[in-house]
Design a protein that fits this description.
CATH topology: D-Maltodextrin-Binding Protein, domain 2
Largest sheet: 6 strands, mixed
Shape: globular
Oligomer: single chain
Order of helices and strands: EHEHEHHEHHEHHEH
CATH architecture: 3-Layer(aba) Sandwich
Strand content: 15-25%
């Protein structure tokens, strides 16, 4: 009698993790921590594939059009719905074409000035900005990014605020639910390990997973806040 076949346990081959920024940066280093650990857990290599360009949009475009077979993931910073508001013309729908998997970790946005700056505190900066309207400027990674919108919000409120950014994993929209749930579960388990938490802490990231539904809720809630900020400030996509 022929023996009954058994379903193979995912993954049965390497999984790629797309990162929209160059090697060596915060996103790249953070992605490699979880990629290396999942490689150990799964017994299959999770390969970090850097596709820098357009503030992360190039990698998201690739992920949005990838085969939804569970073997492509993408490392994303912040609320995915916002990516549709940053650039005038894109070839994907962030919410429709990508599926939330798990939160990876959170980190604070930081306000910094040159060592030679006369401002030694946030209060000094606020006072200078009020005394010189329109003359104080700030830089950020790009239009619509969390640091950019935080700076806009700070400028409009003129007082100190605490804004948290975050990293998360997504998959192409039609990826099998069973695989999405498995990746979410396994990643959350990995992110709770003390050794992994310690590695992320060195990057200023407080690691911690979530369910796909929790990540989706977080993205919608944050996107609602930043959409309001963009509308109020008259920020237009580039």
């Amino acid at each position: 009698m022929p023996s009954a076949g058994h379903a193979q346990i995912y993954p049965t081959r390497p999984v790629r993790l797309l990162v929209g920024f160059p090697p060596g940066g915060g996103s790249d280093v953070g992605a490699r921590i979880i990629a290396n650990k999942l490689s150990e857990v799964w017994g299959q290599q999770v390969i970090v594939e850097n596709k820098p360009g357009a503030g992360g949009h190039l990698a998201i475009d690739v992920a949005a059009h990838a085969n939804p077979d569970g073997y492509t993931m993408i490392w994303v910073g912040g609320a995915i719905p916002l990516y549709g508001l940053m650039i005038k013309t894109i070839n994907y729908d962030p919410e429709a074409d990508l599926r939330p998997v798990t939160l990876v970790g959170t980190y604070p946005n930081i306000l910094a000035v040159p060592n030679a700056s006369p401002w030694q505190s946030v209060a000094d900066l606020i006072a200078a900005a009020k005394a010189n309207p329109g003359l104080v400027t700030f830089s950020s990674p790009g239009v619509g990014t969390s640091p950019h919108l935080t700076g806009v919000l700070f400028a409009r409120l003129e007082f100190e605020l605490d804004v948290t950014s975050w990293y998360a994993l997504y998959m192409p929209a039609n990826s099998p639910s069973s695989l999405v749930q498995k990746v979410s579960h396994d990643a959350s388990e990995v992110l709770s390990e003390p050794a992994v938490k310690a590695k992320y802490e060195q990057l200023g990231i407080l690691s911690g997973g979530s369910t796909p539904a929790e990540l989706a809720d977080r993205g919608r809630s944050e996107a609602k806040l930043w959409r309001s900020v963009m509308a109020t400030a008259g920020i237009q996509p580039e």
